[in-house]
Fold each of these.
Amino acid sequence: MRTLYLLLLNCCFYSFSFAQQDSLKILVNEGTALHDKGDYEGAIKKYEEAIGLDKTYARAYYEKSLSLYVSGKYQDCADVCKYILDKFPDYVDIKHVYVNYGSALDGLNDCVAVVSPIEPGPRTIASGSLALMKATKALKSRP
């Protein structure tokens, strides 16, 4: 009887875990659809809802950073990107986070700071990426 109870408990746990992953993906996909329609605030709310369910879901943070950037909230975007880089250094799309971060810093006209996110360099970012171009532009525009 005890074995049956433990088996049922494990099944319930795994069912909940899969259901939560589905909920996260649905929320992020809804946010992406809103972003694509130009409703950046609505998208950000969806991403925050996903983050509220699972603070380790890096994709929700990344998508939020993109909506923040496109809506002109450069400092907020940079803050989220920095958080992702600190907490999720192995995130599968980390190079895109660097691009968002560099772009946000460029939007803030922070020429010196644009260079710092790319210091990990070639191991993390492809040599032709937008972040490297932004850094080059920033260095050339320095007084």
Amino acid sequence: MSNYKLLGKNFTPPDVLAKVTGQAKYAEDFRVDGMVFCRFLPSPYPHAKVKKIDASEALKMEGVLGILTADEVTPQQAPNAPILTNEPHYVGEPVLALAAVDETEAEPLEALRFRWRGDGLELAIVSTLGDVYSELGRWRDALSVMRTTAERYPMNPEARRLQADMQTVFERLFLDGEADQIEPIQALGLFYEFSDLTPVGPNGDRIVRLLAGRLVQVDLLEQAAQLLQHQVDERLEGLSKAQVAGDLAAIYLMDDKPDRALVALAGSRQPNMPAALLAERRILEARALLGLGRLDNAVELVERDRSADAQAVRAEAAWRARDWDRASAELRTLLGMRNRALPFDENDRQMVLRAGIAMTLAGNDAGVRQLYRDYAGDMANSPEADAFEVVAAGINAEGASIREVARAVARTDLLDRFMTRIRTRMTADAPPPAQAPGTPPPEPPPPPQASATPPATTPRRQAGT
């Protein structure tokens, strides 16, 4: 080691002081007269091909001496990297060099115009990646990666095919039921994020109605209404508009917004509507009028309608008006219209209770006795059995007991059956609410409880008395 001057010995490099003090000069620090400056244009894409370079505007600029392309440099053999390339393989790989008389004049790179062709391999990979994401249920990832690539290469035929693939994925989601596997609110977010993929025509309208049905099923009524309101305002005309506006009005009624229901119906009236649609919209309008306290208008609207739904409107109006004699008569008529071939359900039992309460408040004890004879068998052993015994006591019923039953019955609506029918139709194609993996199935509901449980102080009336 003693024969070496530097190896194995401490020493101070002669240029270290200049470097640490900033006084050292590097190649880029030297300037001479007539010096030419160069700038490289890097590729903005990870893999693409240059189809054409238009340098005409750049070459017209003062101080620009020329450009150098990959076609003008000597090809390099591997492992040497090319100086310039027409097929970059990473973002930032140089594709062009521009010479100018000073550094500021090198900025005309921005004036260059390129035509790029995205590599078919890249597009094929993105298409495959979209398929993989779809199979994994990562729908947002699938649509996002395809959209980003399609927008990057808008003129490429493969990109247009990618756009078609996006449409297919969107329809798989919202037409073929794939979105049924995710939460309704997440499905709604996906729909809004990629709503530009909604097909024009019947399929697009069906997508919106199916999604609205899912939202109604889980009581996301405001979101469902927003979807259908857009359809009614922007997309639909004629009979289709009248049909969807009817559903929209029903959703507003479910959400306790009768005023908006009336607006939806009024703005979508059409000539020569089918009788069934006309009848449904008429009952919806009457229900909205009842909700706004316009009882006489509701009754007038269904004056010539002899259906059970219209009779429910008349009975409900009389009940809300506290016209107990008329309410008694309308309720007895409504009970007489029920289909006796069907089981006596909760709606029927509520009607019986209402009729008995109305007769009691009207002082019609004979009517109460007749009601008991007619329906004692149907009401026995039902959740409303005890409440019916209180009502059946008529004018002799203890005041607190009859009031308790009356309050319970008043929380119901004689048009509940009609509204349930519409809700069932709207949600017919909706799947059961999505359940988290590993979640045990829900336990069966407990036996129904009586809708009113009055004090057991009223003696039972014997049938026939």
Amino acid sequence: MRVLDVLPHEARSFSTRERNPYMLFLEVVETLETSDGLADSSSVASSKHDRLAARGRSRKAILTSAILAPGRVTLRAGAKTAVGVKNVVNRSITKGKAGVGGVIDGQRERRTKHVQRREAALAQENDPFSITETPVEKTARMQQAAPGEAGQAGGRSNTPDSGATDAPEARSEAWRCRMDRIRTQSAHAANEPGWQLAAVIVKADDDLRQEMFCMHLIKSFRNAFSRAGLEDLANGLRPYSIQATTSSAGFIEALVDATSIAETKRSMLKQHNAASLEACYRARFSAEQSVVSFETAQRNAMYSVAAYAVVQYILQLKDRHNGNILIDSSGRMVHIDFAFMLGWAPGGITFEKPAFKLTKDMVDVWGGRGSPLWDAFVSSFVDGLQAIQQHHELIMRDVEVIAACGARFPFLTRTTLPRMRILKLLRHRFKLWKSPQQLRRYALTLIDEAYDNFWTHMYGKFQLLTNGIPP
């Protein structure tokens, strides 16, 4: 994929508790790739030659325009172009001064806004009558109240359009409208047949190297499923691009067709509808503009839950609340945010005791326990665990290299476990000494322990009370 242009005027910011990431939109074009995932050498060479030629032409054009600028004295043949170069330098200095002035003005404006926010916060603290409902309390009240009570307390009319701007359908429609608008305004869309609009989330003061490594491991899981002929499980995983530019910054590919379960449930609550996952799936995938049918979305959800269950068990992924699980346009439940893995849990305390997250709410999407898709889920999980056992070297090799090279990942530095103990526990979870029949019985035990687990519910309630994330 080659970047054609960056669109800073289309960027949008996300305000969080500690950081301020923002989404950046890019104009990109698909490039030819070989079966190994590498660009063809001839195409790389030709594109490099074109870029160098364009760069040479642009420099020549700049120098020519500087020499022949309006109001200049015509130089005789053979004379030096020192005055023209001087003109370029003067222009650069002028632009540099303007840029510095803009930066200073921006700093003053941010400082003024910070002082205003601080004064408003102090005034609210000193005012005994300024007690308002926090977003966490509002979410908890909407989650626990009946539909009629929620409508009376929230003061919203019970109409289909209420909260429509937060619905997944509205978001996908907004993305298509944005793409069409930028396509008409773009100077590259007409000349590039593979033109696309992409979005990345830029994050600062955040180390993305561990998440980048975890995404590499998820791709290894996908390769192992494909080698074993489990294409449905392989398609259940959705890897996305993560690039750490420094130890404290980077960018993440935005899944523009996906919405978190938490946001989906909030949208349903605003419309005074049932906030179960089954109801969310029926509302989203029964509509005419949905990409897949409801039955296809059920199967995709089942295979994605089974595939990510294997990943969660082997890598010990934690912090699996509904804000870190997305529902994409095909119905898959995609996991994001891999800051806690391989023994490292939020706060250093493992609230999430089961091997993976499997709530009754998730299982009800494909018919509940005892349905035909439930039997397919059990078989898929067992087959996936056996495939990972056969191709365990894909995972062990990379983790051993990271542990041996002295990487400062949180799962290696913030736990009390030594590195050799982490590797030993990881190898132990592959159950290499178990036969296929024994591994199947063990997998059934993991499913029974994870299904509607008490600690999973407790962690969901904890996230609801502390962060306002619906369970």
Amino acid sequence: MVDGRAKGNKFEVQIARVISEWFCGKDFSGRKWYQLPFRRRSPGNAMDGFTNGAWDLHHVPEYEGMKIEFPFSVELKNQEKWELDGMFHCDKWKPFEWWDQTLEQAQKTQERLLPMLIFTRNRRATYVLLEERVLKWLRPKAVNAPIVSIKRQDGQSLSLLTMEDMVQVPPSGLVKVYRKQIRAG
């Protein structure tokens, strides 16, 4: 039997490492999870100099002299029992439920963070779900898989891409867009 908590913790550490390397431009292999600028949520780490904005992922505001401004409130899911094609015919698709949770959490942040859902399952790619307007501003390139626009029955416009393609967006450009487009209005 698979320990769901251990599986989720392993995924959180994996994504914390990927985002740390993406945003800081450094190789963090060999470092423990608690030595990364982005870290999985653990009891009390929001009280140890971490931002409170992201739910499953926290980051230090400054790391080795580098100021970190991460514009997303991140929800992470590593669960089975969903198929990618479910988005086309099922409004109760599991990732849509997770998206609703992600959106609710982002709306509670003081920093006006953007919702980002990162999800996977065994032997599948890792996907990122964002608001379509955000993806249009970021203009990522579809290198590893197509970028899919999704119109939910409730009217929400979302975009789905792989994590591999998401981390190709330069962090500096991402922060500029966030400051200009999102915070402004």
